[in-house]
Amino acid sequence: MRYLIFLALFVSPPLGSILNAAEVCYLSWQNDPTTTMTIRWLTDLKTTSDEIEIKKPQEESWKKVAGTHKALPYDAPHFLHTVEATALEPDTSYQFRLPGETETHLFRTMPATLTKPVRFASGGDAYHDTVEPFEEMCKKIASYSPRFILLGGDIAYSVHTKRSGDDKFDRWFTFLQSWTRCMKDSDGNMIPILTAIGNHEVKGYYNQTPDQAKFYYSFFGPNSYKQLLFGKYLALTILDSNHTHPIAGEQTTWLQQSLRTAYSYPHRFAVYHVPAYPSVRYFRIRESCAIRKHWVPLFERYSVQAVFENHEHAYKRTHPLVKDEEHPDGVVYFGDGSWGVKPRPPKKAWRTSYLAKTESARQFLLVELTNENRTFTATDITGKTIDSYSQKVAPPEKF
Fold this sequence. Notes:
Elements: H1 2-10, E1 25-28, E2 37-43, E3 52-55, E4 63-65, E5 68-71, E6 79-85, E7 93-97, E8 105-108, E9 118-123, H2 131-142, E10 149-151, H3 169-182, E11 193-195, H4 214-220, E12 226-230, E13 234-238, H5 250-261, E14 267-271, H6 286-294, H7 296-301, E15 306-308, E16 315-318, E17 321-322, E18 325-326, E19 332-335, E20 355-359, E21 363-369, E22 373-380, E23 385-392
Helix pairs in contact: 2-3
């Protein structure tokens, strides 16, 4: 009986019902995070207005910004509305109102320079069985007031099985409801989300096309691999580990060009789902081998300092690695996707040449950037620090 009541609370409203626009509203970026913000929200199929109002808190007059809406896949009973606010000022708070709503919401643009520390959080494998551990972790992460969240796949586990799984809208709806409620910083700002695609977003899991991940591309598209540049201090590269685009070929060619473009940025990171250096599974699984063959040499060549991996359901930090071996100037790989999913027992770090630290724990990684340092702190669901690692910022050598 309790299970039935729980389901009734979190499945999406039936077709034709009225959905409060503020019930599902989330932020992300399509372009420059210092001067833009993308706002998305769900409504019922009767609501077609896309125009929001926006202003700085101290201003009196509101500016109207128009957007678009589209129907969701598989006859899901909602419109997804999208507005991109542009020409914003860096590191500035803004208020906005959704159509027909009196409630105001807050967000803050990213700074253009690192005059003060910038903090973000990374994790993956989020809403798995029940919503409680996912929401508990969301609230814990939000309490640290990160400027954005990097979520590396298996977001809502909307595709449960590889061979016969449907892409379940109710999983996405519950995830987005919870995100809307929980992901606000200590000042009330909504925290933007950046995502990488995982196997549980895709019908068939691997070697598929975007048409097999319709909800993911609707909510977070249009690309599963992309690069975001923050001012002149952070380059973030998001990749698709063979879910809707192959690792080799076009994506690898794009990756090399993108890493070359970002080479002058002092902080350079990549994120994707399946790890090159797994903490639980076999070292020679197909996707891991392909990533080590095609992407890892580029990470090393262009001096990517850290890579965020997922999929394994445990915590891991590798040694700095070059050609799979410990090297002081190597790339550090963090992971491994245990935000809300039940953690697995990982390999013993002392018995595995590439692993420096492992632990079976629900955890997230808090990353803090300054002009001199970058610090990575792994924190479990109780707030306990389970690992900490730091690097000095150094100018890149010529390649």
